[in-house]
Write a structure and sequence with these properties.
The protein is an alpha/beta fold. The chain is built from 15 helices and 20 strands. The chain has 3 domains: 135 residues, FAD/NAD(P)-binding domain (3-Layer(bba) Sandwich), CATH 3.50.50; 139 residues, Protoporphyrinogen oxidase, mitochondrial, domain 2 (Polyamine Oxidase, Chain A, domain 2, Alpha-Beta Complex), CATH 3.90.660.20; 99 residues. The strands form 5 sheets. A 7-stranded mixed sheet has the order 8-7-16-17-18-15-19. A hairpin with a 6-residue loop joins β7 and β8.
């Protein structure tokens, strides 16, 4: 390092073993810092993990990425597991509708944004008038200027309605992208985040939206390789260690667990925002409590094993059906020979969160039979449900003002997580970017960088409850 600090001479403590924490720990260790990472679970990976059930390895959710997610892909290369993923050579999203032939949203060879013109003009689930209207809306979306005040306060659905997009067009086209990326339907989602997603992932570069998938279970792609990479980097990893409170010590932040306290010159807090709010509140008061305003949005996953193959697609989107996205995860899960395991991913699943397993089975098995006629003759061997109550922060209008940057007003205390101000919604890419930003702040702390906190700082009084509410959490 340019500071001349000897390797291992400075200590960083990372609280949280998700993608943000893993990234921050690797960056700090690569810069010569002595790093300890603590994680409450007995595994790494955070919200991207797998578990074994009845001989199958099931992912907690279907974590898809895009070619433009360069930070996440670089992390996988760093972990030595990039070969366990695949990226489409060219964007292709099969779209299935009951009683209709298979449709395909695929990019052409023209430069962006014309690369999607052919797919849109041929899309059978919109009328000719709706297709032309969708093209005009896409052009208008490209012309939105980043940073306009109205973006943060407006809902994407309202903007679409103002640009001639009716409920049918929204359901058949726009929600195919909004729901899985924002974890909210367009009607409820932030215009700022929706504009970012569509422009970054689909409209700015022809190949940006090519879909990436994990060939193996997430634990094999992320958690286990991360554990090896951290060990190789000299990071001390302590699993099953729960951070219960943060205290200002003489030489930095002390993180107290059940039986011991750990201290460091720089501490990276890389836990979910609701957990971070509770840990930060004694130090930052009202400013920490404001993090709860980020809210949450759930995801429900259905895991269906048939006694025979019923679906020919690696993945597909649904229109005119309660099935949002379905993935063939047979090989990744280790499904029995001759069987097929389909994972149905339901984003923004507030209704489904309150449905029993029996009710979900009654609703979704017939829906799958409508999409895959061969399922009508197949036997369902297993039907499992997993629920993520707080899968992501709620990407609603106004959420940008609540997302803090990595710095805090407390020297040496840094924040990381997909909920911080990365510009991205709650995604794999956003989590990794936040880890890089947090590591940069932590390393500057070790170097004694005199620069004051930036506008992204989450501020609070140095003693007692923080009462400064100016500007909320500026992005």
């Amino acid at each position: 390092m340019s500071s001349g600090r000897p390797a291992g001479a400075s200590r960083v403590l990372v609280v949280g073993g998700g993608l943000a924490g893993i990234t921050a720990a690797l960056d700090c260790a690569a810069a010569g810092a002595s790093v300890t990472l603590v994680e409450v679970r007995r595994r790494l990976g955070g919200a991207a993990y797998s578990f074994e059930r009845d001989g199958l390895w099931l992912d907690n959710g279907q974590h898809v990425f895009l070619r433009c997610c360069t930070a996440y892909r670089a992390l996988l290369a760093r972990l030595g597991s990039e070969q366990l993923t695949m990226v489409q050579p060219r964007l292709e999203i099969p779209v299935l509708k009951p009683g209709c032939p298979r449709a395909l949203l695929a990019r052409g060879r023209l430069p962006a944004p014309a690369h999607l013109a052919g797919a849109l003009l041929r899309y059978p689930h919109l009328s000719t008038r709706e297709r032309l209207g969708a093209a005009r809306a896409a052009i208008a979306l490209m012309r939105i200027r980043e940073g306009e005040p109205r973006l943060e306060a407006s809902a994407f659905g309202e903007w679409l309605a103002d640009h001639g997009q009716g409920p049918h067009a929204v359901a058949a086209l726009w929600d195919l992208i909004a729901l899985p990326t924002l974890n909210l339907p367009a009607a409820q989602a932030s215009l700022a985040l929706a504009a970012f997603v569509f422009r970054t992932g689909l409209l700015s570069a022809a190949d940006a939206g090519d879909v990436g998938l994990h060939r193996t279970a997430l634990s094999q792609t992320i958690g286990e390789p991360a554990e090896r990479a951290l060990a190789d980097a000299g990071v001390q990893v302590r699993l099953g260690w729960r951070a219960e409170r943060l205290v200002r010590g003489a030489h930095g932040i002390e993180v107290h667990g059940r039986d011991e306290a750990l201290s460091a010159q720089a501490t990276v807090l890389a836990v979910p925002h609701s957990r971070a709010a509770g840990l930060l509140e004694p130090l930052l008061g009202e400013r920490a409590r404001m993090l709860r305003g980020l809210g949450s949005s759930p995801i429900v996953n259905l895991h269906v094993v048939y006694d025979r193959p019923v679906c020919e697609e690696r993945f597909a989107a649904g229109v005119g059906t309660p099935v949002q996205y379905v993935f063939d995860r047979s090989d990744a899960a280790g499904a029995p020979a001759g069987c097929q395991y389909l994972a149905v991913s339901l984003s923004g699943a507030e209704r489904e969160m309150n449905m029993s397993v029996g009710a979900l089975r009654e609703r979704y098995l017939p829906a799958l039979c409508e999409l895959f006629p061969r399922a009508r003759q197949a036997r369902v061997e297993r039907f499992l449900v997993t629920r993520e109550h707080a899968a992501t922060f709620r990407a609603a209008p106004g959420v940008g003002a609540l997302r803090p940057g990595p710095e805090t007003s407390i020297p040496g205390l840094v924040l990381a997580g997909a909920w911080t101000a990365t510009g991205w919604p709650a995604t794999l890419e956003g989590a990794v970017l936040s880890g890089h930003a947090a590591a940069d702040c932590a390393l500057r702390t070790l170097e004694g960088d005199p620069r004051p906190p930036s506008a992204n700082t989450i501020a609070g009084a140095s003693t007692g409850a923080g009462t400064d509410t100016r500007g909320a959490f500026a992005r």
